[in-house]
Structure formats: C-alpha cells, structure tokens
What we know:
Layout (H helix, E strand, L loop, with lengths): L1 H23 L2 H9 L10 H31 L4 H16 L7 H8 L3
Helix pairs in contact: 1-2, 1-3, 3-4
Amino acid sequence: MAMVWVVMPIVLSYWLQAAHFLRIGNGVGFWCSFLFPLLLVIKARWVPKVVMLGLVVISVNWVFVTYQILVERLMQGGDWLRMLLIMGFVICFTLMSMAMFYTNALTRRYCGMK
Length: 114
C-alpha cells in the first residue's frame, strides 16, 4: 500500500497530461499519457530513466501550453495571473514528482539498493 502513495505523484502527472490531450482532442497523446505509467510495473533499471525523461518532456510541454494561454489571455485582456500561478504549480508538481524515484521504496525496486 505504501508503494501506491510513492508512485501516485508520477501517475497523476501523466494523467494530468492525458486530460489535457483529451481536452484538445488528441486521442493518441491521451492514450500514450494515460498508459505510460504502466511502465512502473516493470522492474528494470531503465524504467526510472524513461519515466523521468517523460516527466521532463511533459514539463516542457506545460511551459509551452502556459505561454500559449498567456498570450491568448493578454490579447483578450483577460485574467492571466491566476492561470499563471496554477500552471506554475502544475509544472513544479510534474518536475517534483521525479523526486519520488529517489525514495527508498523506488530505489530498492529499480536498483536493488538500500
């Protein structure tokens, strides 16, 4: 049960990206983001690297999405500060979820250490 709480931020980061893809109508992106966390089931040394690389790609994508929304809001004269704070939190959460791979539970699972 403890392992569920350790991987939850990682899974949520991918599922948040999947929800974004679903919202914009990208079915392939949705299914890839939705199913990608299933790699965590595999006990191999390469899994953390691949999943962390995916989290970095997702974070970079969120930066581009934030910029696009910011430009739209500024052109329309709409409220942009709240959106910027929310998207900043989403980006930080996605990047910080990579830290879960440095917990004792995931280090033991994928590296056989500790």
